[in-house]
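lol ok so funny story. i was supposed to be doing the assay writeup but got distracted and ended up predicting the structure for this chain instead. priorities right. anyway since i did it might as well share w the group, maybe its usefull for someone
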Amino acid sequence: MNEQILAIGVLIASYVVLFSEKLNRAVAVLLGSSVLIFSGVLSHQAAVSSVDFNTIALLIGMMIVVGIAEKSGMFQALAVLSAKAVRANPRGLLIMLALMTAVLSALLDNVTTVLLIVPVTFQMMRHLKLKAYPFLLVEIFASNIGGTATLIGDPPNILIGSALGLSFMDFVYKLFPVVAVCMIVLIAVFDFAYGRYLKADMQSKTELLKIGAKEMITDFGLFYKSLFVLSGVLALFMLAENIHLQNGTIALLGAFIMLFLYTFGDEHLSRDSRVEDAFSLVDWTTIFFFCGLFIIVFGLEKTGVLEILGQKLISMSQGSLKKATFGILWISAVVSGAIDNIPFVATMIPTLKSMEESFGGREAMMPVWWALSLGSCFGGNGSLIGASANVIVAGLALRENEHIGFAKFLLWGVPVMFVSVICATVYLYLLYFM
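and the output, tada:
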């Protein structure tokens, strides 16, 4: 009982610190995990074995691949091509940037995507002499919705996919249809609310159109190498189930090949310098945050707290798979809107695993797992702190004197979250309970 109280106390304290932002999030969870080890709740070996290294490898690998690819200017060139495709029309640009953000979020990840897209958006808006606010809003929502479609698009999916051994295509087959519907609704609403009022004079549009996509490519050799590696990694993700490789292994393989191509032919000192530069592209704060989080959640699992929570959830659902599915969907959405969805999903995964036997095993429980994915990813749109991508966009906007306020964001975030979760509710009902 004392160990259970301590494990719960560490989790609550970590959540409070995360919510208050008084400490760096990696420091907060690493301190919490250290308390569990030093108090004897977990041994050193148990703590290390609790870290899901498939997830860690997937994150590190993709960060290196995308970070090096970004140096070639390929993503900036893609944004310029998008502007040219709509003749720099602001209304068309709003739609195009939303679609591009959603697609890149699905293929790369939503955090990386907004880091690439937002600076380009500000550059375009300066040319068009327009406020970036509506474009930033739709990019936040599109990144969270688009990222829901694949294994690597949103951190909650990475956690769920790794825990269940799901493939890239498992997520695409099950979640892409509802993501597509939500994107159509999002674009239609934003076009009605903002798009039809966006205007730019001909001179401003002409200036933007003068920027050539090729001018954005700073290194054509690296551009072609990046295209080769990214295509190969995505192809292997799609084939992972057939070739029996873990997603983390594929991501690291892509990173190693990218590093080899990036440094091949360099002199010794230059090569080492570029490798160190590539490793600095990894967001080590996020990596250690995940490590600490895995340990804290395992503390709850080892002390039996999650088993008790699982039994409570089974009792609340009254043994009904339908009630469990829609209950998890809406609970995940609301909670993920209030706090970062990553720690919530990390806590829920072992809890749901403890419920599988009562509902007839893993396959029978899949509606609940998809509900967790949809609820946590869509719920991330509910508030400015609901997902990492939201916080990053707000920070980038502040540097450009474009303030995205917490309360003002709620006016859009809450309705977008509820509409998307309603779409998910209808979709899951039609897919599993008709």
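The two ends are 43 Å apart (CA to CA). DSSP finds 22 helices and no strands in the chain.
back to the writeup now i swear
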